[in-house]
């Protein structure tokens, strides 16, 4: 293991020293900025800051920027949103923060807000703002399609950067500072909210003077939120005591929002390859190779022994008397008892119970598998970059809709091989069962978002568009695939099925169905464990996920380990003369989804601080959708791997 670790470190160091050059994909070309006034085809001067929805790690309910009483752009514009952005609840709009490239500004007023105690509307706005600070709602600002990050010091002097910053913070009635209030000793007054009404923005750019392009390109945008009680709003100094908002709103209040901005030039260094995940991937590959090697060597010995015995018996018939063959046949029976998977050749392809349901799951699983492969492959190439917001979800939904044909075809082929005759029911279930469960769950979660007034609620028109895609494109394509699947002749198996089922001998603990299924999901889950943490962070902790290259590699390794684990356990059960492998092969690798659910529960209680029944229901509602999709995905991989394995071993062994 130590040698393996050294090899991984050596590979990482070699990759880090290789010089690389970048290229820009269509639609993702950078924008150049110049200090001259005006806008040309290759350079512009004005920088527009966009605002996105506000969200919190303590609540799953996001809200639009306009819901809070912040400064609004008089010429508000909303960029066109794709389907992925709508489904994720992104609501991007222009803000009143507008800058000129290269021009530093100090303590510039944006707007002022007044709250009167006698005005009930002002009181409701301020209460909502205080509720947002109590739940630690975060701004998400965007400059040149980049998130504006807030970096601060944490324990051990390390720096942590977050793609968002809080509205404000709260010091409880016990004097305990919550969330961002711990970063400033001035935030110490009990039962007081501190509003971050000022931001110091730093924009870093890379100049093109020494290269073949004009102007400069923005590299990063950082800010530091401040709480400042401004005096004269016509002459701001951005100094003084914090902007305090008492828990009890008893006096009139006036809040002035302001900002400062400065521009910094920097030199870019060659990017280094991320090696933190490489060690675990090498170890998983090593374990997978060991499992495959053991399986191949064991099978090779079994097949060689069976064929050798058959050939010996055949030669005896032609060269010796009949009693010599009688002496040979017991030898064959002894060999079969030594390794018993050949003894069940007459039952191994016997149709399973509930074969229609299995065929439906396999059709839907194949649809999800192809969709995931194409989506991750495009993301790995950079076509679905995080800079292209919502592109990943849009691509996945469109691919799922267009892949109804392989779902219907595979489901029909499998169901027909089981001897099924209710083809209409099979097609309808393939087109409606699993998508219907997902849509029903999604619709219930959306109702909760509607009731809570969250910006993540999908508009009714978008829901109708999704239904139109489902029933207008996906369902007809599923029927087309099923038509061609049922038109094909029945799949021929390498051995015939006996009329009378063979009795299965008593099984040991490890060859019983439940222990085998539970053990089968451990190794595949170990492959995705590291990446799963980053993916859940990107979904629930609102962090950007960009390591699609590693994710695609993990996807390939998950495919290999699901196949190998299922084949290995299938081989053990066949050796124990248990031929009920159809459902077991699907459930063995599909049980990885149960470990995913357990990890999601652990993540909820250990990593998140979600409060409220609505947010909890939303978290577990969306988690169940993920678990169902992952169950179909991994189960389908295991089934077809075992299906190929069983066909292969019984096709190379001579059976009387």
UniProtKB/TrEMBL annotation:
Keyword field contains Cytoplasm: no
Q: Record's Pfam families?
A: EMP70
Where in or outside the cell it occurs: the entry states:
Membrane
Keywords on this record? Membrane, Signal, Transmembrane, Transmembrane helix
Keyword Signal among record annotations: yes
Gene Ontology CC, one term: membrane
| Biological process according to GO | protein localization to membrane
Q: Which domain of life is it from?
A: Eukaryota
Segments spanning the bilayer are 277-296, 357-384, 390-415, 427-451, 463-486, 517-540, 546-574, 586-605, 617-646
Its main localization is membrane
Q: Topologically, how does it sit relative to the membrane?
A: Multi-pass membrane protein
SUPFAM superfamilies of this UniProt entry?
MFS general substrate transporter (SSF103473)
Q: Where is the signal peptide?
A: 1-22
Family statement: Belongs to the nonaspanin (TM9SF) (TC 9.A.2) family.
PANTHER family, from UniProt?
TRANSMEMBRANE 9 SUPERFAMILY MEMBER, TRANSMEMBRANE 9 SUPERFAMILY PROTEIN
Q: What is this protein called?
A: Transmembrane 9 superfamily member
Q: Which organism is it from?
A: Electrophorus voltai
